[in-house]
Amino acid sequence: MQKTYGYIRVSTKDQNEDRQLLVMRELHIQSQNIYTDKQSGKDFNRPQYKKLLKKLKKDDLLFIKSIDRLGRNYTDILEQWRILTREKGIDIVVLDMPLLDTRRGKDLMGTFLSDIVLQVLSFVAENERCCIRQRQAEGIAAAKARGVRFGRPPKPLPDNFYPLYRQWKKGLITGTAAAKLCNMPLSSFRYRAENIKHTGNTPV
Questions:
Q1: Is residue 183 left, alpha or beta, with left meaning phi > 0 and alpha meaning psi from -120 to 50?
Q2: Which of 30, 38, 48, 182, by CA, is between 20 and 30 Å from 141?
Q3: Pairwise CA distance, residues 37 & 60, whole Å
């Protein structure tokens, strides 16, 4: 007996899956047959998707809202599509792209056209992911150029850091000794000393 399933994915825990969930409910898919991952689409190492994959049987029907909800990696999407349709023997419907409905056109020409559309959309999904990464990198670089600092702010230096730093610079004390007196790891002492060296910000 054919069962109907829905798969939902949002990229982060902060994103809302309600829009996709509403679509699945309008299709009268039972709640226990709707699987949701809140995880990046960069690969298929997702807990709910893995559970769904084990559950699917031949001739079952799977709905997804759009191809990028399945994934964003071109090669992986094509491989998973092959596993689902050929190894598992299920039908897939991509709601935002009616041509990607394996219930239709099961002849050679229909399969050929579906494969072309799938490859194009998979490429678009991955290309968008690459563009997002590039925009993020460019945004971070621009922010750094403006002096924006990322990460946690550094801990305040102990009161005796600068006197000990000056003694260390003059060779009057070892770095290990200076770090110990500052109650800092040696690596932290050297890192903060290196920052002072580059910025020249050394109190008298």
A1: left
A2: 38
A3: 20
Q: Judge whether 11 counts as a catalytic residue.
A: yes
| Pairs from 174-183 (Cβ < 8 Å, separation ≥ 24) | 182/157, 182/158, 183/158
* CATH architecture classification, 4-132: 3-Layer(aba) Sandwich (3.40)
Model confidence pLDDT, tens digit, residues 42-63: 889 999 999 999 999 999 999 9
Sequence ranges of the domains in the chain: 4-132, 161-199
Number of H helices, E strands in the chain: 8, 4
Q: Which residues contact 192 (CB under 8 A, 6 or more apart)?
A: 154, 157, 161, 184
Among residues 85, 83, 81, 58, the alpha carbon closest in space to that of 3 is found at 58
**Pairing of the two strands 34-38 and 61-64:** unpaired
> Taking a C-beta distance cutoff of 8 angstroms, is the pair 105, 98 a contact?
no
Q: Do residues 178 and 168 make contact, with C-beta atoms less than 8 angstroms apart?
A: yes
Question: What CA–CA distance (Å, rounded) separates 118 from 110?
Answer: 12
Per-residue pLDDT tens over the stretch 13-31: 778 899 999 999 999 999 9
pTM of the model: 0.59
How far apart CA 142 and CA 81 sit, in angstroms, is 39
Distance CA 24, CA 33 (A): 10
